[in-house]
Amino acid sequence: MGYTTQGIRNVALVGAAGGGKTLLLEALLLQAGATRAKGNLQRGTTVSDFDPQEKRLQHSLDAAICSFDHDSTHINLIDTPGYPDFLGRTLSVLEAVDAVAIVVSAASGVDTMTQRLMDFARERQLCRLVIINKIDSRDATCAEVLRQVRETFGFFRRGGAYPDHRSGGRARREAHGRLSRAGRGALAGAASRPF
Ligand SMILES: Nc1nc2c(ncn2[C@@H]2O[C@H](COP(=O)(O)OP(=O)(O)OP(=O)(O)O)[C@@H](O)[C@H]2O)c(=O)[nH]1
Ligand SMILES: [Mg+2]
Predict the structure, then answer these.
(1) 109: Cβ below 6 Å to ligand 1?
(2) Would you state the pLDDT for residue 159?
(3) How far apart are the CA of 59 and the centre of ligand 1, in A?
(4) For the chain, what percent of residues have pLDDT higher than 90?
């Protein structure tokens, strides 16, 4: 299938190491119908951490691109490494995307890596969306992390989304507010509903 430039969206998943980007990508790919099962870090079956060293270390070491179609839009989601040692690899990806999805762990909140990535994306005037992940974690402090995100980035002033477990992990509605079409496309299918 051919695509026009207007029909392609490039979205980078960025954030601190261990925030859950690689597994979030697994969930999005599954939801989009691009895969049949969610990959597992321990078994080394995630789509984006395909390198033997990544499988061994269970961390992303380089950027990896995964694609799926949503309606008539072709979405390229790029998983990036969160370790500061590989920041250069992550920043180089941001030169080529329309939108940046910044994944923040509800268990660890906004750290300096997250802040740096957000600053970089803002300087380049990229569309930014924040995903608060790991909300099921025992250490999650969702309200506190949401407050941090709002305070640090001023996000969710116009809108946002949070998971709705009652939907059984199935699609409900898209997030709105400051999400680009790409961001909305990437999130469509994720269990979410507006604030
Ligand atoms: N509780 C909980 N743990 C999660 C979730 N998502 C990921 N994890 C755990 O967090 C750890 C890191 O997950 P990854 O997806 O590899 O994180 P990452 O952001 O890709 O990490 P880097 O590749 O190092 O940047 C793993 O042990 C996962 O099992 C989640 O939604 N909830
Ligand atoms: Mg990763």
Answers:
(1) no
(2) 54
(3) 9
(4) 71
How close is the Cα of 44 to the center of ligand 2, in Å?
12
Helix (H), strand (E), coil (C) string for 27-90: HHHHHHCCCCCCCCCCCCCCCCCCCHHHHHHCCCCCCEEEEEEECCEEEEEEECCCCHHHHHHH
* Structural domain boundaries enclosing 74: 8-186
**What is the CA angle 155-175-59, rounded to 5?**
75
Residue 35 in contact with residue 115, Cβ under 8 Å? no
| Residue whose CA lies nearest to ligand 1 atom number 32 | 134
Q: Is residue 163 part of a domain?
A: yes
Asked if residue 194 has pLDDT above 80, the reply is: no
Centre of ligand 1 from the C-alpha of residue 24, in Å:
8
Give the Cα separation of 16 and 83 in Å (integer).
7
Other Cβ atoms closer than 10 A to 149: 22
Domain contains 2: no
Establish if 194 belongs to a structural domain. no
Q: Which residue has the tokens 């949070």?
A: 162
DSSP 170: -
Strands (E), 80-147: 99-105, 127-133
Residue 70 CA to residue 88 CA, distance in Å, equals 30
Per the confidence metrics, is the pTM higher than 0.90? Answer: no
